[in-house]
Amino acid sequence: MRSRFGSPAVRVLAFSGLAALLIGSCGGSSSPVGSSTPSPTPVPTPTPTPTPTPTPPPTPTPEATPTPAPTPTPAPTPTPAPLTIAITGINGGMSFNPSPAAVKVGQQVRWHNADNIAHTATQSGGFNTGVIAPNGTSAPITMNAAGTISYFCGIHPSMVGTLTVTP
Prior knowledge:
Blueprint: H1 8-25, E1 83-87, E2 96-97, E3 101-104, E4 108-113, E5 141-142, E6 147-152, E7 160-166
Parallel strand pairs: 1-4, 3-7
Antiparallel strand pairs: 1-2, 4-5, 6-7
């Protein structure tokens, strides 16, 4: 009896081809037998990112404490220039010019002898210029206290003068 599919050799060949086709389509490998398995594709290893060092929070800037304005020191009142009193001669109350003379505490007074004979300016219990030669000038004397000072010539006591010293 003859089979519908022909001779047995043809049948084996047809079934083998069909089986190969079915196996190939079922996920079988098309690689020849005995070949090596393909190596997997290398996946790059991620480089670890360094963890940033935490930044400390900014230190708040302290508010500036206002500096109080310095209290101005009043400028000292300058001491007036020395006063020079002229000795004009033996004229009683007109022997010294100016007389009366006005000065401030701390101010200096000098006497200049404009006469042709020696004189002094002397305060009883106070200052004494010593002898002032004609055309000479005494050393300065500082008036340290307020008040009225009467003075005279120690050589000619009739020659008198007055100083008024104010604060």
